[in-house]
């Protein structure tokens, strides 16, 4: 298991390097395939030896090899962050058929969270294809685990969370963006496949985390009552956190009600 976590974490470094491109180019409507990466200051192409995640940035001391312009610390931070998220997902999901599906969730979660923070938008080119990709990956997971009820539960979870967000979008215009509504269906698929408790906890955690963040921003003066706070990062954080905490939270809640947790 340790070897799996380390290997997946290392692969997260490589994925994180690609996500740097995604986060920069997708909001601009640019291809993530071509042209190759280049220095934004002088336009010099990034050499292969300078494209090693984290290590290249350290060896270059955070500067372009050609013009010595500073390279943002965010690039290695994103790579390291993706590696950590990948390793954590591998630790909780384990060597199962579901691991590729949840690693895909981890990858789009990192990209979408940063894009939403940067431009207050959850781009369709990432969210909409994720319905098909997620459906295929979870179908393969259900086949490999011989757990077809999980796939049905995923479908119900996706529809349920999507409908909930549609209702909220209609009832309180401006309370959330249409991108949040579209993302809700994708997250509902993952949470539903993981279990009903994950669907409930992950759905609630988004509003809890978003509310707490809003209170902190208001108290610190960094936002006002009329400020629009991107909600996507809290939806994604809530969904990922549910993989770890859904079962103990559900057991705790049932205990409060005087009920025994399911066997």
What is the compact description of this entry?
The chain is an all-alpha fold and 263 residues long.
Q: Explain this structure to me?
A:
Helices cover 70% and strands 0% of the residues. The chain contains nine helices and no strands. It has helices at residues 2-25, 55-59, 74-93, 99-119, 124-145, 148-171, 178-194, 196-220, 232-256.
Layout of strands and helices, then pairs:
Blueprint: H1 2-25, H2 55-59, H3 74-93, H4 99-119, H5 124-145, H6 148-171, H7 178-194, H8 196-220, H9 232-256
Helix pairs in contact: 1-3, 1-4, 3-4, 4-5, 4-9, 5-6, 5-7, 6-7, 7-8, 7-9, 8-9
Proportion of helical residues = 55-70%
Find the count of extended strands (DSSP E, 2+ residues).
Answer: 0
Terminus-to-terminus distance: 25 Å
Sheet/helix structural class: mainly alpha
| Parts with pLDDT < 50 across at least 5 consecutive residues | none
Element pattern in H and E: HHHHHHHHH
Put simply, the count of helices is 9
The biggest beta sheet reads:
none
Radius of gyration over C-alpha positions, nearest whole angstrom: 20 Å
Mean of pLDDT: 90
In one word, what is the shape? globular
Beta-strand share of residues: under 5%
Keywords:
mainly alpha; 9 helices; 0% strand
């Amino acid at each position: 298991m340790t070897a799996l976590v380390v290997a997946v974490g290392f692969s997260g470094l490589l994925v994180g390097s690609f996500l740097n491109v995604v986060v920069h180019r997708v909001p601009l409507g640019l291809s993530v395939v071509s042209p190759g990466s280049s220095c934004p200051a002088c336009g010099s192409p990034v050499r292969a030896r300078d494209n090693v995640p984290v290590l290249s940035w350290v060896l270059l001391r955070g500067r372009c090899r050609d013009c010595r312009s500073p390279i943002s610390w965010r690039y290695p931070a994103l790579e390291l962050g993706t590696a950590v998220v990948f390793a954590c997902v591998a630790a909780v999901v384990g060597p199962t058929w579901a691991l590729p599906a949840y690693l895909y969730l981890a990858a789009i979660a990192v990209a979408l969270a940063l894009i939403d923070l940067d431009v207050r938008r959850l781009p369709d080119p990432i969210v909409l294809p994720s319905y098909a990709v997620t459906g295929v990956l979870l179908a393969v997971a259900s086949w490999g685990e011989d757990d077809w009820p999980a796939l049905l539960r995923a479908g119900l979870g996706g529809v349920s969370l999507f409908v909930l967000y549609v209702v909220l979008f209609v009832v309180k215009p401006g309370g959330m963006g249409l991108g949040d509504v579209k993302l809700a269906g994708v997250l509902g698929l993952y949470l539903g496949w993981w279990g009903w408790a994950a669907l409930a906890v992950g759905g609630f955690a988004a509003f809890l985390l978003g509310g707490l963040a809003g209170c902190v921003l208001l108290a610190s003066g960094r936002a006002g009552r009329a400020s629009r706070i991107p909600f996507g990062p809290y939806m994604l954080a809530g969904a990922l956190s549910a993989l770890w905490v859904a079962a103990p939270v559900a057991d705790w809640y049932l205990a409060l009600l005087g009920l025994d947790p399911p066997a």
